[in-house]
Amino acid sequence: MNNLTGNWEPLGKKAKVFVTREHSFNTDTILLANFAAPRHKDNVADFGTGCGTIPLIWAARYEPKSITAVELQDRAYTQAKMSIDECGFDINLVQGDVNNYRELFPHQDLDLISCNPPYKADGTGIKNDNKNMTIARHEDNLSLEQLAAAAKFALKFGGRLCICQRPERLSDAMNIFREYQLESKKLRLVQTRKDKAPFIFLLECKRGAKPGLEIMPTLILEENGETTPEMLEIYGDYKTN
Question: What do you get for the CA distance between the two ends of the chain, in Å?
Fold first, then answer.
């Protein structure tokens, strides 16, 4: 399994990640890592970590108390392990199904969970012939309800769940998370340009919190054909060797 065809991508001065065609990262991943931004004292986890980009960024930039990364697929797990070993970070990488959360996590132990869940609800969209890509894009293995159940179990009171999703799933996400005592507290829409509709949203929920949603300024990625200063600050830092 270690003879994978891929390449190393920098994640700043302290980290790099091994990516392949099947398991890589994109702007959404970087934005979620930044939006979730753990504190130094936090116990954190990344559900469905893929090649391990978010835990690697967190370890390099924020140095939280503990990091757990969970991945189901063999190839993605192997890539993540290669990168963690190469960087030398203390990241607890677990190969397993988030739906087995009672076996994977102590009850109410985590301060933060991030997840870039499959964007397409089960039964919608055309599925890729590649099984690995189907798992990553469709809710065959992890629905919003399943994510909510796992987060409710694993998060401390006041602990945060941060996700990145498509705008058409926003009402579903907020309703489902509230059913599991995960109250939506911060929302940020992301647009490529000012004249384009948002293509993703970033949402922070807190376990056991009271209602009250902060809508943050929309993040614009490009302006006048150039990357915006805020996006350069978020993204450029990770791409510096």
Answer: 28
Least Cα distance to 33 among 60, 6, 7, 14 occurs for: 60
Q: For residue 18, give the 3-state DSSP assignment.
A: strand
Nearest to 203 by CA among 193, 217, 191, 189: 189
In this predicted structure, what is the pLDDT of residue 237? 57
How far apart (Å, rounded) are the C-alpha atoms in residues 85 and 89?
7
If you count DSSP H runs as helices and E runs as strands, how many of each does the chain have, helices first? 8, 13
Bridge partners (DSSP) listed for residue 188: 202
For residue 83, the SS3 value is helix
Evaluate whether 42 touches 50 at the Cβ level (below 8 Å): no
Angle ∠(230,10,147) on CA atoms, nearest 5: 70
List Cβ neighbours of 147 (8 Å cut-off, separation of 6 or more).
47, 98, 115, 117, 161, 163
CA triple 201-207-211, angle to 5 deg: 70
Tell me the per-residue pLDDT of 75-125, one tens digit each, with 9 for 90 and over.
Answer: 999 999 999 999 999 999 999 999 999 999 999 999 999 999 998 665 545
**b/e per residue, 9-34, with b = 16+ CB within 10 A?**
bebbeebbbbbbebbbbebbbbbbbb
Residues 6+ apart with CB under 8 A from 166: 119, 199, 200, 201
Token digits of residue 210:
């009271």
Round to whole Å and give the CA distance between 112 and 50. 18
Measure CA 91 to chain center. Answer: 16
* The token pair that represents 226 in the structure block: 């150039």
